[in-house]
Amino acid sequence: MSDSGSVGDLLQALTARPFTVWSYEEKCLAKNKRPMPHLDVQIVDGKQNRKFQYSWYVRYPWLTGCDKTKNLFCYVCMLFGGENKWTLQGVPVTKNFVRMAEKHQASKKHLQNQQNHTLLGRWRIGKEGESGLQMVLLLLLISSSSSSPLSLSLT
User: Which candidate, 69, 73, 90, places its Cα nearest to that of 34?
Assistant: First the structure.
């Protein structure tokens, strides 16, 4: 991923090389590099002026914006895959944005992606980590079983 940290750069990087083939280290670095530009967008809707609110980044910790297209995206779904509207096209700032964001964050795919994003970097499981995982699962099984002493032989 480019160091400039824009959504356009991220989209370009993901198009050239999907997140699934990034190295573990690249994924961990990208995890917390969510671009949060201030979008200078103002829409006149009848008598109301609607504009981008920077506080949406706090309300929706998965939200990211593109200063070129002035659209909003879901950062975790861009990384792990999701609806084109939230990953490729972007969602414009409209009077229904909050409703769309609430609906998106409750979707099954987004919730799965949010879980994957949260777990990324906490526990590396790969070919070299499988035996470690088996060891931890075994120890958890032992600790949750009866209080009788067990003899454990690891070979």
Answer: 73
